[in-house]
Specification:
The chain is an alpha/beta fold. The protein is 34% helix and 16% strand. The strands form four sheets. Strands 3-2-4-5-7-6 form a six-stranded parallel β-sheet, with helices on both faces. A six-stranded parallel β-sheet has the order 11-10-9-12-13-14, with helices on both faces. Strands 16-15-17-18-20-19 form a six-stranded parallel β-sheet, sandwiched between helices. Strand 12, helix 13 and strand 13 form a beta-alpha-beta unit.
Length: 618
């Protein structure tokens, strides 16, 4: 992120005068720890996911007295971070996690990096050894500010009790404004124990942090002209549209222009999947229509997207005919991977709203786009190369069918959280996302183990919504301990384990690119000679494991039982439910663009390269 968005190092709060300080009647005398909890209450944090330890322990005592902040005790600090992320993604609020120093803090590194990649507003509070001991390799000391500097939007080291309140206020402001992201607040133990005064609100002191939200009118007008002049435009929509709360504006813009819309993995649900203008998800495993639309486009209007490698494929061959309008709140993203003909810095909601007015003005002047020939091509591709799957010939469960039926049978407004791998891609394709913030996943980092704690955080933040975690048997074994947290805290999520007995996406690559040499991708004890899991092995037995953690658990192997088992899970809302779906191990994710190749080489299925003819390459 640019200098206006990210610090160059840990920020040490300095004493400063208040602007018109509070009256003495509003000042309370508290410990630093009490100031921390009061500050969390005042910024509106209602849920904290955490795990206590020595250096953060002073904060846990006043936390016990808070009636406004619910603390959820996780079983691993990584679970706290992913839960805070899931909470933030589902609610739109800042997620909060709190852990102790040393290994407690370093266990947050992965979820912090995950939140940074996906621009999730997160405040991570860590305890630190006493200020006099910092730098001495004291027990459970780690320079967490230094460690997380590249993966936080900003971080703070607090060594004085009087700095806690304004630092928390600044952390929440930074995390939630501009391009959202994680902020770390590392607080020395003696700062938590010392006496101080507390008053609210504090004065924010953030020199240099001035996110630009209002786009430049000239750039907006230029973009509108290009949209009406284009013959083959595409609205390329990224997660920034969701984070800006701009989904309603996006629908207006799309219907006004009539241009096709493609939504990235992080943007699913920002535009209804069922809308006739939606051509699918782009990228390595995107729909043939979406991938090809970007390749053949003469104009790409990128809204809150970052031209990442999974979308572009081989960068120098991406969208060779297209002019680029790139709108993003983070100026560092514009031109980073693909030069923009019209760069627009601003909040996606304001950008799209202004674009709507500018396009309307073009229409008033008689300038309207003619995309009839473009839609003829797009519809032909949609009809010829739909996303689909074949059922296994041996009558076993198809993982795609399992996920599709979960999506069909889930209550309206269900939130889905996915792990990473094949099941993630199938969940992106075979569940329809009609509403924003109903699809949670680890997009940029691709973090295995994300699904269960993220689903837990989403359910804690949205208790009236059904929450399904779609997980793989590999991902599930990384963070399933948080099911205990769910069971003990009345967080009744539902977990579908897509159990193919292997690290499925890695195995797919071994099948396609490594001559079916299945090195270290089989997860059960023992394997058949073909690299498939040995029949009948159950190590671990996910049903027994889940039951031991307080869940209702079911195993499903027969397609005839599929709907009945899913309905049974949907009906249980007094505890977590886990279904172990034993699926065929050879199912693959299609379409696919092999890593490092051009999007022109997209495969609709194994050995099936779409034929677009030569007339489109003009």
């Amino acid at each position: 992120m640019p200098m206006t968005e990210q610090a160059t190092g840990a920020h040490h709060p300095q004493p400063r005068a208040r602007n018109g300080g509070p009256s003495s009647a509003s000042v309370e005398h508290l410990t630093g720890a009490q100031s921390l909890i009061r500050s969390l209450e005042e910024v509106g944090a209602d849920t904290v996911f955490g795990l206590p330890g020595g250096c953060i322990l002073p904060a846990y005592d006043p936390l016990m007295d808070s009636t406004r902040v619910r603390h959820i005790l996780v079983r691993h600090e990584q679970g706290a971070g992913h839960a805070a992320t899931g909470y933030a993604q589902a609610t739109g609020k800042v997620g909060v996690c709190m852990v102790t120093s040393g290994p407690g803090a370093t266990n947050l590194v992965t979820p912090i990096a995950d939140a940074a990649m996906d621009s999730v507003p997160l405040v991570a509070i860590t305890g630190q050894v006493a200020s006099a001991a910092i730098g001495t390799d004291a027990f459970q000391e780690a320079d967490i500010c230094g460690i997380t500097m590249p993966i936080t939007k900003h971080n703070f080291l607090v060594t004085r009790a009087e700095d806690i309140a304004h630092t928390i206020a600044e952390a929440f402001h930074i995390a939630s404004t501009g391009r959202p992201g994680p902020v770390l607040v590392d607080i020395a133990k003696d700062a938590l124990q010392a006496k101080t005064t507390f008053s609210w609100p504090p004065t924010l002191d953030l020199p240099g942090y001035r996110p630009v939200t209002k786009p430049h009118a000239k750039q907006i007008r230029e973009a509108a002209k290009l949209i009406t002049q284009a013959k083959r435009p595409v609205l390329y929509v990224g997660g920034g549209v969701m984070k800006a709360g701009a989904t309603a504006e996006l629908k207006v813009l799309a219907e006004l222009t009539g241009a096709p819309v493609t939504t990235t993995l992080m943007a699913l649900g920002s535009f209804p999947d069922s809308h006739p203008l939606h051509v699918g998800m782009p990228g390595m495993h995107g729909s043939v229509t979406a991938v090809t639309a970007l390749q053949k486009a003469d104009l790409i209007v990128a809204l809150g997207a970052r031209f990442d490698d999974r979308v572009t494929g081989k960068l120098d061959s991406f969208a060779p005919f297209a002019k680029i309008v790139h709108a993003d709140i983070d100026p560092a993203e514009i031109g980073k991977n693909r030069a923009a003909d019209v760069p627009i810095v601003g909040d996606a909601r304001e950008v799209i709203a202004d674009l709507v007015q500018a396009v309307q003005a073009e229409h008033t002047e008689g300038n309207t786009g003619d995309y009839a020939a473009w839609w003829k091509d797009l519809n032909r591709w949609r009809d010829t190369y739909p996303v689909g799957y074949d059922l296994p010939e041996d009558g076993s469960l198809s993982p795609q069918q399992v996920i599709e039926r979960i999506g069909r049978l889930a209550p309206e407004g269900t939130i889905f959280a996915a792990g990473v791998g094949q099941h993630q891609m199938w969940a992106s394709h075979f569940i329809n996302y009609e509403q924003p913030s109903t699809w949670l996943n680890s997009g940029g980092a691709g973090t295995m183990g994300y699904a269960v704690p993220a689903a837990m955080g989403a359910k804690a933040g949205m208790p009236d919504r059904a929450v399904w975690a779609i997980d793989g048997d590999g991902c599930f074994q990384m963070t399933n301990q948080e099911l205990t947290t769910c069971a003990l805290n009345n967080i009744p999520i539902k977990v579908a384990i897509i159990n193919n007995g292997a690290l499925g996406m890695v195995r797919q690559w071994q099948t396609l690119f490594y001559n079916q040499r299945y090195s270290n991708t089989v997860l059960h004890s023992g394997a058949d000679t073909d690299g498939a899991p040995a029949k009948g092995t159950r190590v671990p037995d996910f049903v027994k494991l889940s039951e031991a953690m307080g869940c209702y658990a079911i195993r499903c192997e027969d397609p005839a039982d599929l709907d009945k088992v899913i309905a049974e899970a949907n009906a249980i809302n007094d505890r977590p439910v886990v279904i172990d779906f034993i699926v065929h191990e050879d199912a693959m994710v299609w379409p696919m663009v092999a890593a490092g190749t051009s999007n022109d080489e997209v495969l609709a299925a194994r050995g099936v390269r779409p034929d677009f003819g030569d007339n489109e390459d003009d």
